[in-house]
Amino acid sequence: MEEIEAKFLNIDKVSFEEKLVSLGAKKIADYNYRRRNYDFPDGRLNDIDAWVRLRDEGDKITFTYKQRTGVTDDALRDGSMKEIETTIGDFDIGDQLLQAIGLRERIYKENKRTRYTLDGVEIDIDTWPLIPPYVEIEGKSWEAVQSVAEKVGFDWKDHVRGTNKLIYQQYDIDETSYSILTFDRQVKK
Questions:
Q1: Residue 54 sits in which domain range?
Q2: I need a surface site. Which of 4, 7, 35, 151 has the fewest CB within 10 A?
């Protein structure tokens, strides 16, 4: 499955939420996410721009394989992202299972997310350690994502398409140099 989402950087969370409410967006929830990203000890997933992610979303635990499948020359836009995802019952058991089959944790990260919907499209305001908040707009088609992006006031030419690693790079931060990246702790490898 291709992930269809666009990100917009450096937003003011309070004024953006006010704009969403004025447009009739429905607030879904505030989330505190925690995640672990994995690879094999030899780095073979990293070699193909892939990783396995275990994420606690508060109301569910997701287990995901992600792979960048279209790398472009544009530093702000990946071509596409392959994503295979399912839910599991327990974050810690999921970690034990992945490590038992030979995967190793590359990084533990936390972030905060506020989710809205507008015109059938999800709008997430993401807050991460060390960088300003940004918006992620995800939908069933690129046309729907672009339409909502423009409706909330973004210029489509400013969208970013890519991983969180790419976002950190825009702030001269190499997230892969961390083993822990949370609001309380940032531990370099």
A1: 5-188
A2: 151
